[in-house]
Write a structure and sequence with these properties.
With 163 residues, the chain is mainly beta. The chain has one domain. Helix content is 10%, strand content 32%. The chain is built from 1 helix and 10 strands. The protein has a 5-stranded antiparallel sheet with strand order 1-10-9-8-6, with no helix packed on it. It has a 5-stranded antiparallel sheet with strand order 3-2-4-5-7, with no helix packed on it. A hairpin with a 4-residue loop joins strand 2 and strand 3. The termini are far apart. The relative contact order is 0.19.
Length: 163
């Protein structure tokens, strides 16, 4: 091998070593059902359980906003006008939400014409399913508790994959 080739190989070795390209990545895993408490103006990356400060709808699966209690909205792949679908479990389009005590019992389907992108005021016991934004899949959620109102509101959720 010539001096130039040796130097080039050495430079590439140093470059790859210095950049830490050992091929390993840290993967966060959580167990299901998973419980999380969110404040208004936070976002949840459901598959990892990571809570983001601020309503970062492009980076999350579920986003909370201040409302009379707390508003829950889905994540959006591109812009806030084209967000992922959400379905509040209920008997019909005009009936009250079905209430649950276990997330395992929450519905997981998306009936035609009954999806939306947000829940204006979450209530304890509500169940809903949403299409995740950060990974392909569907998660089902149970609203375990809602406390406070406006900017000081919090919501405690239990969730798990739908399948």
């Amino acid at each position: 091998m010539s001096n130039s080739a040796t130097r080039a190989t050495l430079c590439l070795f140093i470059l790859f070593t210095a950049c830490g390209t050992d091929g390993t990545e840290e993967v966060t895993t959580i167990s299901y059902p998973h419980e999380v408490t969110l404040s208004a103006e936070q976002a949840l990356v459901a598959p990892t359980g990571e809570v983001l400060d601020g309503p970062k709808f492009l980076l999350a699966d579920l986003v909370t906003y201040s409302s009379s209690t707390i508003k829950l909205s889905t994540g959006c792949p591109e812009e806030s006008t084209h967000c992922k679908p959400l379905y509040i479990c209920r008997q019909s389009q005009f009936s009250k939400p079905t209430h649950y005590t276990r997330v395992q019992d929450v519905c997981a389907e998306f009936p035609e014409g009954m999806t939306q992108q947000s829940i204006p005021n979450a209530e304890a016991g509500m169940g809903f399913a949403l299409e995740t934004n950060t990974e392909e899949g569907v998660m089902k959620f149970l609203v375990k508790a809602v406390q406070g109102s406006g900017g000081s509101a919090t919501v405690t959720l239990e969730y798990m994959p739908a399948d």
